[in-house]
Each structure stands twice: as structure tokens, then as C-alpha cells.
Amino acid sequence: MEIIETLNSKIDKLIHGYDKLRLENLALQQELDVLKNENDELVRNNQDMFLRIDSTLTLIKVRNSE
Question: Which long-range contacts (CB under 8 A, 24 or more apart) does 27-34 make?
Fold first, then answer.
């Protein structure tokens, strides 16, 4: 009977550890999603800025060629 109690105790500890790791994994996945969204926004902002710079340079070239 003592062996069964010991095994049950170890199983309970493993289940608890698994649940704890599962929750930590979920939190990390949510944080990763937030970071991905922030990164996507920064990429879009950079692309917009490059387009503005390109447009400005094109306008300057047109003005200088006149």
C-alpha cells in the first residue's frame, strides 16, 4: 500500500508540474503573439516611411530637373 501512495504522490507532483508548465507555455504564447503584432506594426510603419521617403526623393528629382 505504501508503494501505491508513493506512486500516487509522484503522479500528483508530475501532474501539478505539467499544469504549471502548460500555463507558463500559454502565457509565453500570448506574449509572443503580442510581440508579433508589435513587430508587424513596426514593419508596416517602416514600409510607410520608406514609401514617403521615396515619394519625397522623386518629387525633389522632378523639381530639380525642371
Answer: none
What does the pLDDT look like over 1-53, one tens digit per residue? 899 999 999 999 999 999 999 999 999 999 999 999 999 999 999 999 999 99
The gap between the terminal CA atoms of the chain, to the nearest Å, is: 97
Q: Which residues contact 27 (CB under 8 A, 6 or more apart)?
A: none
| Environment class of 55 (CB within 10 Å of its CB; exposed 0-12, middle 13-18, buried 19+) | exposed
The CA distance from 33 to 44, in Å, is: 17
In three-state form (DSSP H/G/I as H, E/B as E, the rest C), the secondary structure along 3-22 is HHHHHHHHHHHHHHHHHHHH
